[in-house]
Amino acid sequence: MATEPTAAARTAGVSVGAIFALVTVALVVFACDQITKYFVVENLPLGEPVPVLGNVLDFVFVKNPGAAFSLASGATWIFSIAASVVTVLIIVFARRIRSLSWAILFGMLLGGTLGNLTDRLLREPSFGLGQVIDFIRVAGFPAVFNIADSFIVASMGLFIILTIRGVGLDGQREQKVAATGSGPATPGYPAAADSTPDATER
Predict the structure, then answer these.
(1) Cβ(133)–Cβ(115) under 8 Å?
(2) Which helix H or strand E contains 26, and what residues bound it?
């Protein structure tokens, strides 16, 4: 008689689909970031705004020695190290991801991080101290940013959503049960008192 697999058994091994999604999203984000930066450097004058959508959106080519959205200028080497650490951590934890949503999240974060890290490593003035290319300016927003920054922020937004919904890296959502482990079930949830995850969340 077949037995129900445990949560550990269900999450064992590597999800090829999740890894593929993570790598694909990361490559797309990285390519979009680097291609747009190439065209900005080659075609836009440094520091001169170019209107795109009237007073709402314009492109202005700036070189940012700080973090995302031109913050903390002068600490480039710190952000180079931090981005390298983030990249390594994503690669290490990638094998634990079985949820498509988490794979997309880490793909956006990895692609954006690598995009800005590439600037810091390869652009002037020197290795590890390179200035990041920013060019997107939105009316009412206090900083200029780029495609990489946009996807990093989007990944943080998705992180908040998945965390609120209780979705783990394995794609499982924990059931909400009564604190005593007995009695009537919480409305909308089964009355089981165990913490067995319910259906996989994509």
Answers:
(1) no
(2) helix 16-43
Paired sense of beta strands 57-64 and 132-138, if any: antiparallel
Residue matched to tokens 């903390």: 72
Do residues 138 and 69 lie in contact, with contact meaning Cβ atoms separated by under 8 Å?
A: no
Give the DSSP H/E element, type plus range, for residue 137: strand 132-138
Residue 195's nearest CA partner among 166, 169, 164 is 166
- Phi first, then psi, for residue 106 (nearest 5°) are -70, -30
How far apart, in whole angstroms, are the C-alpha atoms of residue 169 and residue 22? 13
What is the secondary structure of 55-103 as a DSSP string?
Answer: TTEEEEEEEESSSGGG-STT-HHHHHHHHHHHHHHHHHHGGG---HHHH
Strand 57-64 to 50-53 pairing: antiparallel
CA distances to 24, 34, 116, 124 from 27, rounded to whole Å, are 5, 10, 13, 24
pLDDT, one tens digit per residue, over 73-112 is: 555 667 778 888 989 999 888 888 999 999 999 999 999 9
Q: How far is CA 193 from the centre of its chain?
A: 35
Helix axes 16-43, 100-122, angle to 10 degrees: 40
Catalytic residues: 134, 149
- What's the one-letter identity of residue 39? F
Give the confidence band of 5 by pLDDT, cuts at 50, 70, 90. Answer: very low
Contact in structure between 200 and 171 (CB atoms under 8 Å) = yes
